[in-house]
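re the bet — no i am not wrong, look at it urself. input seq straight from the record:
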Amino acid sequence: MRAATLTAFGSPLVVGEVPDPEAGPGEVLVEVLATCVPPYAAEVFGGQRRYPLEPPVVPGVGGIGRVTRVGPDSTKLKAGDLVWCDSTVRARDDALTPDITLQGWSSRGEGGARLSRYLHDGPFAELMRVPTENVYRLPPGAEPASWSALGVHTIPYGGLLAGRLEAGETVLISGATGNLGSSAVAVALAMGAGHVVAPGRNRAALDLLADRFGPRVSPVELTGAEDTDRTTMTAAADGPIDLVLDLLPPQAPATASRTAAMTVREYGRVVLMGGVGMLGGADFALPYPWIMRNSVTVRGQWMYPRTANAAMIRLVATGALDLSPERVTRFALDEVNEAISHAAAHGGPFDRTVLEPGNGCEHRWDQRR
């Protein structure tokens, strides 16, 4: 098969022939039709994000594909099924604290690294070997390039589930103008949030959110001054903020996350899913007395539970989460380095860069739906 391989950090990906993967028991072989290229992929491949990838590796993070072969333990999947392949792989030998790897992308701890060495390669290839439990059937007519956005939307969905978002509640999305943050706004509304406060520094992105979602979203342009921004965000909520979901990237200062977190009401919840502090810098440092006296729950969340995949597919299939306004720019496998550059330059709200390894296209186009 043909694949795009990261041979060394800081080097362009190399497209060429590699051996076909061989799926064993408990695994599925999938022809990759579409996979989203994250806006920060260039930072990962350049080494700036310090991800524990071990080159040479076929990278990528989840994708849409067509099943070509199933193992003997598959009872519902069959060859020809259109499926979503979730990158979040959990070890099967510890139910309480399973080691985790993001297939073709990242891992956690030594156990996650060992798992990654076995399930080493991701979806930047014509074929991918995936654990059976990470493959989810899609409804008939699902368009692969559009539906590959599942790889974006399921992440903040995991955070909102962790925060126990309930219908009618007010949620503040810290980092709302980014790729994941804007997705969180859309997903929160699809889940029934009554009001979303969307702070950020990008005025154009804030206006886009307001135009798309109307009065249920209150955009807030940040100044960087903690007291001023906290007051402005609190006022924009026009009532108590029940949940804060932080999705700020590693480059963001810890003060921005802290400012957003401290807008939450008494007995409120704060979920941390971003990358603040991963590249060094000041600590998050929430005040102990504030957490204790206000009975605030603060928790971290990495990715999402397995059940989130099935629920997210239902949200899209029923139209509760509408993918039609998203802009999709497609690239063939030979154009992978161009796709990575494009993703870095187009990482705003609802802008998707999609690699199509299995379609044989020699061109790309922008598609609005």
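see?? Residues 150-162 form the longest helix (13 residues). told u. also The mean pLDDT is 95. so pay up
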